[in-house]
Amino acid sequence: MIGDLYQSPLRYGVAYEESSVDGITPRPHWAGLMDSLRSIGPAELAFRWTQAEQRIRENGITYNMYGDPLGAHRPWKIDLVPLLISDAEWRLIEAGIIQRAQLLSLILEDIYHSQNLLKDGLLPAALLYANPAFLRPLVGVRVPSESYLHMLAVDLARSPDGKWWVLANRTQAPSGSGYALENRLIVSELLPELFRNSNVQRLAPFFRAQREALAQLSGRNNPRIVLLTPGPHNETYFEHSYLAKYLGFTLVEGADLTVRDRSVFIKTVGGLEQVDVILRRVDDDFCDPLELRGDSLLGVSGLVEAVVAGNVKVANALGSGVVESAAIMPFLPGLARRLLGDELKLPSVATWWCGQESAMNWVVDNLQSVVVKPAFSSVGMEPVFGSELTEADYKKFLVRLRSSPHEYVAQEQVQLSTAPVWENEALQSRSVVLRTYVMNTGHGWVAFPGGLVRVAEDRGSIVSMQRGGHSKDAWVLSDGPVDTFSMLPPRNELVQLRRASLVVPSSVADNTFWLGRYVERAENQARIIRSLIPRVQLADDSELESLTCIAACLGTRSARLAEGKRGRTSFNALRRELLALLTDQKRTDSLAATLAEVSRIGDSVRERLSGDMMSLLGQLRSSVQAHKGTFLTSYSAMLTKCLELLSAFSGMERENINRGSGWLFLSLGRRLERAIYLTHELRHVTKPLAVENWAYLERLLEVADSTVTYRTRYYTNLQPLAVLDVLMADEHNPRSLGFQLDHLAELYAKLPRNLPTDLQAIEDAVVSLRQIDLQAMTQRINKAGSHLSDGYEEVDLFLARLENLLPSWSNNLSSHYFSHARTLPITMGSD
Question: For the chain, which end, N or C, has fewer CB atoms within 10 Å of the first or last residue's CB respectively?
């Protein structure tokens, strides 16, 4: 996480100032920056900041804030004034974080193998075995290069005397480096002259080394490397997507991967492809629901077994989170002397693990001057600042602390140094925390020259991104030449042309397929309900049966249409049912629930959709939620607006989406869903259909948006077989069943590794539909006395078989392309 809590207590006085803010004299290496900002002037800085905000919005740079009333996906907040670190100061930091990475890696090696540190009493056994992050299935498992840490993140703070202290170590899935890179790109464009003249160390060499290190980790030529993300709802999902694209890796979720024969494979629409290296952003215990945490929906079943077999490499290694606990920090000085023969170059902030009696007693006596935190991530609590406790809360907390002391650590309240920030068109001072990184290249350790700086929202407040804080870039000012390598290709560099994505993960195809289905389902629901609303309000008892019949076309299993005394549904019951189908999000068959699914799935494939399409999806979801009417008639305008938005989405799908695999599955979903409900409606309404019920046909044409098509051919004369021809057999009507089947055949033929049995079944269905002679049926029906019964058996048999086939085609698509399970052939002749 990058939303950790750190507080700077102001009662100790003004924290160390980096620059001439509030009358404090700047440190020497800040002089150039301050002069440059003064020369630029407030007006120009404000203009440049507006440009930066525009870039953030256009690039979709977000940080997900849980429970935020303004929405989870908040634009990334960045300050345009970088934090400056001198070359001499950076050399001290660099040496300290590299030493710390070496130490933590050696500790992990010992913990999961010989455990000599426990035997010699240098590390309490209770601290290790009480920690849920200690993964027993990984004991004895060797890792590449004998290093558990591919990357370590270290949170640093500087005290008023200028000394750097370590606040925390992040060892299992360090985050923030992607945001640091994006900050660098934005700030260097905002202050280009200053950046060029300041001799700032570049970040690209670090990422180049990371890409090479991960490739080397696999031990193979041209390895397949994936970045495993928890998904779009994770707070740093933008970073996962951004880094995967920047490094050239495939972004995957747990559902995209599968383990076969103790190897990991990525499920793509082209088939299973073996994965060599997983760069994970999923916490240890969530990585394998089979071996680690059974309730995890984020990991890959069998991943531990594949790691044990040596068939896949994971960075950071599974189990590395055990040394992320702050409880280990009091023991690091002694462990450094034992394992490295040296003193810690960067000390940790004073920490006490309450599992030791002496430390516990000290904490109890000095609770007013410390902050108490969970020793392990499984202990759910916010940090407790002793100085803020009332007398009653103080007593309650002591009882809690003494009941399970090993679950808590105490740390001194840190006086954070401050740095200038640009706020309200002026420089202000705010507390800052620097997160920097160090990486194992396989041949040594490389430090990230700079890092992600987190800034308190207000003076003296907590430094936390989840609490509204923001970030800034960190510039390491080099005294010598800097490596100007960039991983961004020059604008004049020739590129290799390609017209399709190299890999389309199955989850992307799955989500776009269901996005298509839910969009089409929402349109069908909206059209049926809009058709019924005015008639339910004005119709008499003679029309109730036809209205109930159309309402039943929604196909809901949760229908609550109560029958009256005569065994018929009442108008009041029908009105209540329609209102529930509009607004009740707890009902999965409601329009509100369907649109919520459209929005949810859209969020999961937001990288594949344009900003305009994402805007439409957001408007669709809020269209029903924002309407609070209690009468059906008040929803007619809302439904019309909803259908307009759905039509706009359809237009964008046809005109704005590249005809790749994503579009292919989106279109398949739409055509299958439309065919499913058309088949159901045609069969439900037209069997049997006596002349007195021909009014049903008008509703059916309206729901299928084919009234104009029918009237241009037959005027207002409603005939069952004419309606069947328009809605079932007419291959030129984009709302007809025949049109859907024709397009399904075309789309299936374009599928990679296509399903020949299903394709043949679709083609057979097209042939069967064309063989139905509706004109001949008209003559037989006229002789039978105007009932759609004689001669209709052929149509009913066709629709019945098709109604059985369509869900099976959807299931086979899911099995073949999404879950990669075995498919079951079902043909047009099967029952």
Answer: C
Question: CA-to-CA distance for 312 and 264, rounded, in angstroms?
Answer: 7
Angle separating helix axes 506-538 and 591-604, nearest 10 degrees: 160
What gap in Å lies between CA 322 and CA 70, rounded to an integer? Answer: 35
Neighbour-count burial for 753-774, b at 16+ CB within 10 Å, e otherwise? eebeebbebbbbbbebbeebeb
CB atoms < 10 A from the CB of 147, how many? 22
Residue among 448, 447, 454, 490 nearest 471 (CA): 454
- Secondary structure of residue 64 in the 3-state scheme: strand
Interatomic CA distance for residues 206 and 335, integer angstroms: 28
Nearest to 246, CA basis, from 278, 204, 200: 204
Could you report the per-residue pLDDT of 748-805, keeping only the tens digit for each? Answer: 999 988 888 999 999 999 999 999 888 777 666 566 555 555 567 788 889 999 999 9
**CA distance between the termini of the chain:** 54
Quote the CA–CA distance of 165 and 535 in Å, as a whole number: 73
pTM, full prediction:
0.76
Q: Which residue has the tokens 């670090």?
A: 206
pLDDT digit string (tens) for 60-97?
A: 676 665 555 444 566 778 888 999 999 999 999 999 99
Which residue is listed with tokens 């065919």? 675
Question: φ, ψ for residue 678 (rounded to 5)?
Answer: -65, -45
Contact 831, 801 (CB under 8 A): yes
Sign of the CA dihedral 184, 186, 188, 190? Answer: negative
Is 697 in contact with 550 (CB distance < 8 Å)? no
Q: Do the beta carbons of residue 313 and residue 218 sit within 8 Å?
A: yes
Cα 779 to Cα 758: distance, rounded to the nearest angstrom: 35
